[in-house]
Amino acid sequence: MQAVPSVFRSPFRKGLAAGFPFIVIIVPFGALFGVLAAEIGLPIAQIMGFSVLVIAGASQFTAVQLMADGVPAVVVVLSALAVNLRMVMYSAAMVPHLGSAPLWQRAIVSYLLVDQTYAISAEVFEEEPAWSVADKVAFFAGVAVPVFPGWVGATWAGAVLGAQVPEGWQLDFAMPLAFLALVGPMLKTRAHVAAAFVSVVAALLFAWVPWNLGLIIAACLALLTGAEVERRS
């Protein structure tokens, strides 16, 4: 049997193949954000600025919902930052793999480091210990190619066409489904499981806190729990 050409087995192409399935989740997720942002009166430029500059669906939804409730700007910013604290852990986890890459490559990776690109890359990097830093950067880029345009394009479509989406279309399933698909396979250690458990319980216990500040409390408790379990083990 003829061998598969190396170009089809390259890290970049493997990244593309791994990233494309996320389109199924990203498109309704991004479209829903565009619809909700347009409904609260944000102009298209600000909506697209959210998705191009922030690139973090959960914090974007949090910010938009708080803005719709008339919450003070400082609370909106703090809540969005709390939701995005996971990005700090993502960055730390990527350092052993990509820390020696050229500065310009690390800058691009930092910009495109989101839930999808991190989850897939972290798993595959552990499975491919022989890969060079260049191979890992190429794989990460391959994953990001469908993810980033899909998110931005879906946001634009939702913002422009949101008024035409029938109310019976329950697009809000995309957000929890996306995180379940990402987080579930990553709960491999006691620290991961403990942090996830505490975050869920704390979010429910502090749901009564005004302005969704319970999310900040839950995020901090989960981080502390995960770090302590990791330290003890």
Automatic annotation (TrEMBL):
The entry's keywords: Cell membrane, Membrane, Transmembrane, Transmembrane helix, Transport
Subcellular compartments: Cell membrane
GO biological-process terms attached to the record: L-valine transmembrane transport
Gene Ontology CC: one annotated term: plasma membrane
Location (main, coarse): membrane
Bilayer-spanning residue ranges: 16-38, 44-64, 71-93, 137-162, 169-187, 193-224
Tagged with keyword RNA-binding: no
Topological category with respect to the lipid bilayer: Multi-pass membrane protein
InterPro entries: Brnchd-chn_aa_trnsp_permease
Family: Belongs to the AzlC family.
Protein name according to UniProt: Predicted branched-chain amino acid permease (Azaleucine resistance)
Species whose genome carries this gene: Jannaschia pohangensis
